[in-house]
Amino acid sequence: MTHCKPLANVVGECIELAKLVPSSHNCQPWSVHLHHADMPFDGTVSISIDSEHTINALSSLKNEMLMSLAGFSCALINLLEASGVVCKVQSDAANLSVIDNEDTRVLTVYLTLKPNSEDEARFVRISQLLQNRYTHRGALHADKPLRWQEDVLPRKIWPSEQLHWLQITPQKQAQIAKLVSRFAALDFSHRKAWQETYQFIDFAKSKHAKKDRGFNIQQLMGPLGSFKRRLNQMLLHPNVMFVLNKFGMAQKMADMLAMLSEQSSQLICLCHSDKADATAWLAAGEYMLEAWLQATEQNLAVHPLSVLLQHSDAKTALHHTLGVQHSPMFIARVGRSDSEPSFITQFRYRTSLSRILTQH
Question: Residues 135, 220: contact at Cβ < 8 Å?
Answer without folding.
Answer: yes
